[in-house]
Amino acid sequence: MKRALLLLIALFSFDAVRSNLEQYNLFWKASRQAQAGHYAPAIQQYRQLLDRYPAGLLRCEASFNLACAEYAMKHYRRAAELFAALPPGDATLSKTAGYNQGNALAMEAFRSRKGPAQEALLGRALAFYRRALLDNPQNADARINYEIVLRAMQHRQPPSPAPQGGGSPDGKGQDGGGAVSQLILENARQEEARQMRKYFKPLPTKPSEQNQPDW
Question: What is the pTM of this model?
Answer without folding.
Answer: 0.68
